[in-house]
Design goal:
elongated, mainly alpha, two-stranded antiparallel sheet, 306 residues, 2% strand
């Protein structure tokens, strides 16, 4: 049997059956031409996409470099007293007051933690002393009552000390949240505001310098572009300024509310402990919804220690 025709070698005949060989076009040449055109189109599309991404990145880097240069120039001018800066006296006074308050609260937090550590060691010593007195009471018949009284006293002091530790730990935790989270969040917004202020002044100075120069077509185009950038950074500056004012207001309200509660707790707990008023001490913790850890829970697990 004769094998069928090879599709790669078949031809298309134009002009009907029996036409001359001049009208024959090999299909292999058509197939190769289409594939070559498709590959070329795909390659051009990929190259154009890559080139577009590269141009976009270069433009981003160029804008960042120009912005950095202007801000650095403005910062140096301000530092050496040659440049002018936008000043909001009332707002800057509030910002400086916040920074000073944060430093003082950090000092309170550090001292409260030191008090907690020292008092914890004293309570542990009282606990060990009470156990020793109780053991000696069993082994010394002639001093049983005396050792027993002292053992009971140390155990009572230890119990009250653990209650006071619960109050102090709650005080430390609340101050830590106020200082290292609430105040720190506001200071981060202030940092963004100060950066926006520096950018605004940099572009304002740039616009002022261009306005003093010639007024030809090229200069006018630059002035118009500078005017647009000035407006953009002015809006950014005013937006961050508004955010800082709002956060400072809420921070002050929150600070007063938190410290009123914590200072009352600290005073009542300390006073009740050193007055030996166990009932008032426990009532203070209930008043502020403080729950003590059960015995043995002070020691962290092996997983927490890792």
């Amino acid at each position: 049997m004769v094998s069928g025709p090879n599709l790669n070698e078949t031809s298309i005949v134009s002009g009907g059956y029996g036409g001359t060989a001049d009208g024959i076009i090999p299909t292999s040449s058509i197939k190769g031409s289409n594939m070559h055109h498709s590959i070329s189109s795909s390659s051009m599309t990929a190259e154009e996409t890559t080139r577009g991404v590269a141009v976009e990145k270069l433009e981003t880097v160029r804008k960042w470099g120009l912005n950095t240069y202007k801000c650095t120039k403005q910062m140096i001018s301000e530092r050496f007293g040659r440049g002018s800066r936008t000043v909001d006296l009332e707002l800057e006074a509030q910002i400086e007051l916040l920074r000073d308050t944060k430093r003082k609260y950090e000092s309170v937090l550090q001292l409260a933690r030191a008090l907690t550590n020292h008092f914890y060691n004293m309570v542990q010593t009282q606990h060990a002393l009470g156990d020793t007195f109780a053991d000696l009471s069993q082994k010394s018949p002639e001093l049983r009552d005396e050792f027993g009284f002292n053992a009971e006293t140390q155990k009572l002091l230890c119990k009250n000390g653990e209650t006071l530790l619960g109050a102090i730990n709650f005080f430390v935790s609340s101050i830590n949240t106020l200082v290292n989270k609430t105040m720190e969040d506001t200071l981060m917004t202030i940092k963004l505001y100060e950066n926006a202020r520096l950018e605004f002044d940099a572009y304002r100075t740039d616009l002022e310098e261009l306005s003093l120069g010639p007024r030809d077509a090229v200069a006018m185009a630059r002035i118009e572009a500078a005017q647009q950038q000035y407006q953009v950074h002015k809006e950014k500056y005013e937006r961050f300024r508004s955010d800082v004012i709002i956060k400072l207001k809420f921070l002050e309200e929150n600070k007063v509310k938190v410290m009123h509660k914590q200072l009352l707790l600290f005073h009542n707990a300390i006073s009740a402990y050193f007055a030996g008023n166990q009932q008032q001490l426990e009532q203070t913790l209930k008043q502020f919804n403080i729950k003590l850890r059960p015995p043995g829970a002070d020691k962290p697990s092996w997983l927490e220690e890792q």
